[in-house]
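Predict the 3D structure for this chain.
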Amino acid sequence: MKIIHTGDWHIGKLVHGVHMTEDQRHMLKQLVETIEIEKPQVLIIAGDIYDRSIPPVEAVELLDDTLSEIILKHEITVIAIAGNHDSPDRVGFASKILTDRGLHIRGNISREIIPVKVEDEYGTVDFYPVPFAEPAVVRELYGEGEIKTHDDAMKMVLGRIVDKMDGNSRNVCISHAFLMGTEAPETSESERPLSIGGSEYVNVDYYDPFDYVALGHLHRPQKVKNEKIRYSGSLLKYSFSEARQRKSITIVDMDGDGNVEYELRELEPLRDLRIIKGDLNSLMDREIYSLGNTDDYIMASLTDKGELLDPIGRLRSVYPNILRLEREQFDREAGEDRTSAGDEFSRKNPVELFGEFYENLSGEEFDEGKKGIVVDIFDEIGRKGREV
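Done. Predicted structure below.
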């Protein structure tokens, strides 16, 4: 069976105030073209379909146009789940009606994860769509008071799936989570934390029983533990921390025994997102700027010493889509006095910062009991924010 694994479309995304809809339409057109060529049986969208819980109209129209063409024209099965950026209710709206047309969208997590069954020449492949859910939601769903973290939640959900899994079928899990193996995966600035205060990590070992695991959340395509457990990455670069990444979709071939081979099919952006570095005059030199596409989204890191007159305005005359400007020397000198404190601050999560504030204000210890209450409050705030 041939499967195309994608995730983190983030339709409706703004990067430094710039709408990325046109760029996303360009990338999704390449996805459709790849489907025409490869003729997969299944397309997976592993969460974060939209960038916001209430997406703009043009984002909804773009998704509708894309999925309509994929399903109605190419007649392949599409399986999608909600991620932490999505509103589960909105993503899952009319999902039962759409199932008959080959579109399987799981917004809210359910007590029993019913597999989507797809047949090929070897038999059945069971796809288990596991949408993102806060630990508090899973705790309420199963009535298990001990579920406190994302790891606890996924251990429960996946354990129940594995207990009932058909050993004669090939089994695929679709999940939106932050998996942790022996090595930490590579992250990006544009990935919203899954948890505020509590641990967001999930043990990769829970996914071992599956023949393939299609992951979403992290924006760099990468494996976790082994080649059958993979993040597809995002379709576009959404932060300058991703400037060196090559974006792609993952084409998976599964044989009759559940063994998989994969290929990363690179995507060409309408406008790249890249970093340029040098003094102002050199970056304004035609011989330099003609080496790349000046319409790309640019972060300029200037190495000039001393004051400059309107550097952003001058750069914009050559690079109209410049999004960010840094002064290397000034930023370094200004940061020397605050580096230690700033680094320490940035390493702390909101619950740790609240704990320090509480102890300084009250003189009492911020013990584990108080911490647990605050973690639950922050998680509830995050969940309510996604529902708005």
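The longest strand covers residues 123-130.
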